[in-house]
Amino acid sequence: MAHGVNAAFLLLASSSPLLVLQLLLVSTSCALLLRSARGEDLLTNGFTAVELAEAQFKVQKPYDVPLTERYEFVDGVRRMWVYATDHPITTAHPGGPRTETKIELIYSSGVWQFEGYGYIPYGTSGASVMQIFGAAEHATTLMLHVYDGNLTYYHDDTRVVDAGVYDRWFRLNVVHDVAASNVTVFVDGEHRLTVPGRGGDSHYFKFGVYGQTKNGMSHLMESWWRDVKVFTKC
Ligand SMILES: *[C@@H]1O[C@H](CO)[C@@H](O)[C@H](O)[C@H]1NC(C)=O
Ligand SMILES: *[C@@H]1O[C@H](CO)[C@@H](O)[C@H](O)[C@H]1NC(C)=O
Fold first, then answer.
1. Looking at domain 45-233, which CATH architecture does it have?
2. pLDDT tens, position by position, for the chain (234 residues)?
3. How many Å lie between the centroid of ligand 1 and the Cα of residue 157?
4. 200: CA distance to ligand 1 center in Å?
C-alpha cells in the first residue's frame, strides 16, 4: 500500500500538486470520510463530521404504499409516519410496521456519534424512534422507544432518557464506542444514559418510527428529524 502510494506520488509530483494532495488524502481511509472538525462544541469536541450524501439517507417504508404516503422531506425536515396496521418493508420481512431512515454508513470499529434534532408529535407511542443497528446476538445495539411521552432504553420504563418528549424539538446525541463497547445518550446536551454495547461488527444509525409490540402501538406513529449528522473519532 505505502509503496503504491509512493510510486503514484512520484509519478504525479511533477504534473499536478492538486492531484498529489488528493492522493495523499485518500491514502488515509479516515481522511476520505472526513470534512471538518467542529471544535466549539463540548459534545462534538474531538469528533470530526462525516460528509454524508443525500443518497446515503435510505428510507424504508411499508412495501405496499408509495413513499410519499409515509415520508416527506420539506425545508430540511424529514417527516416519517406509519400506522400500526401497516405491512413490513418487504413481504419476507418478519418485522413490524416502520418508516425509518437508514444512514448508509456502516462502521465496525472506532467511535461514532449520531446527532439529530427530533420531534415526536403527541400521541405517538410504542415506537422505536432511533436505533444503532447491529449486535452479536440481537439485531440492535441501541433502541430508543417512546411510550406515552417518555423516551426509553428499549421498552425499559425504568431507564427513561427523556420524560417529556412530545411536541418539542430535542437534540439527540448518541455516542457508540465500539472497542470500549459502550453507548452514551445525550438529550439537549445533557448526559442521560450509558449502557454496554452488545457486540457485533457491522453497525449503522437509523431514525424514524418502527412499531414495537411490547407495550402496544398507537394507531399513528410519527417522528420528524432535522440536521442529522454523523461524527467520528479515528
Ligand atoms: C415517564 O417517566 C417518568 C419519570 O421516570 C415516570 O415517573 C412516569 O411514570 C413515566 N411514564 C410512563 C407512562 O411510563
Ligand atoms: C467507554 O469506555 C471507555 C474505555 O473503557 C472509557 O474511556 C469511556 O469513558 C467510556 N464511556 C463512557 C461514557 O462510560
1. Sandwich (2.60)
2. 334 334 334 344 444 444 444 434 433 445 444 444 443 455 767 899 999 999 999 999 999 999 999 999 999 999 999 999 999 999 998 889 999 999 999 999 999 999 999 999 999 999 999 999 999 989 999 999 999 999 999 999 999 999 999 999 999 999 999 999 999 999 999 999 999 999 999 999 999 999 998 889 999 999 999 999 999 986
3. 7
4. 31
Nearest to residue 197, comparing CAs of 149, 101, 151, 133?
Answer: 133
Sign, CA torsion 25/26/31/35 = positive
Instruction: List 225's β-bridge partners, or say none.
Output: 78, 118
Residue 54 has phi, psi (to 5 degrees) of -60, -30
Q: Can you tell me the distance from the alpha carbon of 221 to that of 121, in angstroms, rounded to the nearest whole number?
A: 8
- Indicate if ligand 2 lies below 6 Å from the C-beta of 182: yes
Pocket lining: 181 vs ligand 2, CB cutoff 6 Å:
no
Report the 10 Å Cβ neighbour count for 225.
23
- Say which ligand is closest to the CA of 173: 2
